Amino acid sequence: MGFLSPLANDEFSMRLLIGVQEACKDQNLILIVRSAMTQREEQEGIRFLRAAGVDGLLIFPVDGEAYSEAVLNLKTEGFPFVLIDRYLPGIKTNAVYSDNFAGGRIGTEFLVQKRPSSNRDHIGHQIENVQLRGPLLRLPGHGQKRRD
């Protein structure tokens, strides 16, 4: 099994890697891990892992455009892969991802409960990278809770 991800320099990434390792161990699968910080490195990582003989890929895509050429090639070639926390709108593929709408609603609900009623109109939602779909998908959940 191949696992391709940006460098694991945060708790989420580390927990994800540990979970993948444990699942592979439980299934007696050999895991090959490769990091990629850019789409070019992602493309090279996919090529490397396939050349290494993996039977499938778990891909946590780099930030940016989701329609990477390398990932689309996997789809057209029928190579087994699963995207982690990303999906390709309009293209049927295997993916696991967060319910960002619910996350936005729950996060806003938590803040509303913790803030004095006089400050409840001053809760914001910051998006640093508009190319990432997750933060954009959390925004409607944030807005719904603000309207409730």
TrEMBL record:
Keyword Transcription on entry: yes
Domain Periplasmic binding protein: 2-118
Membrane-spanning ranges: none
Pfam families reported in the protein's UniProt record: Peripla_BP_4
Keywords in alphabetical order: DNA-binding, Transcription, Transcription regulation
Gene Ontology molecular function terms on file: DNA-binding transcription factor activity; transcription cis-regulatory region binding
Keyword DNA-binding part of the UniProt annotation: yes
Protein's UniProt name: Substrate-binding domain-containing protein
